[in-house]
Amino acid sequence: MCRSLALATLSTALCTAIALPAAAEPHRYELDPEHTAVAFMIQHLGYADTLGLFGDVSGSFTYDMETQELSDVEVTVTADSLDTKNEARDEHVRSGDFLNVTEFPTFTFTADSGEAADATSGTVTGELTLLGETQPLTLDVTLVGEGPYPFGHQRFVLGLSIRGSLERSDFGMTYGVDNGLVGDEVTLLIETEAMRMD
To answer: Taking the model in full, what pTM does it have?
Structure first.
């Protein structure tokens, strides 16, 4: 009698577990500094875009693969890590005409949530703080790939490709805008591998 009751109870528990969907499980991710770069394009003299890269980037976020819920996005870029493949131009962009890296050594992006469009793409709207000014910024995010890293740290990884744009004059960076020397619109290109922390 006791054995039959125990088997019945176990059977009911198993059926209930199978019928219920798996619980959502958000994880914290950190950007892999060796596989993360923030790049930008900006028009020069109306002839062509100049491409620049920031190599020193750190950040993290919380994401649930099942529900696609995103939260607690924090990304910091070291302004002095700028590289445009021209030393004189780099020094000018680091100056008070543009990034003013002495007074503002970093700029940051934060966001509390995102909106999924489908299984591999969506948008994240947050706030960019640059030159002491904070403005809204929307980024288009594409999930390029996901899974355990095949060597090295062997952690679970999300590969992300991110695009966006901003007007630098919104942050008080107006050098060269009125005379057309340097464009106002900045196109952002971000590529990263984010590693699960837990």
So the answer is: 0.85
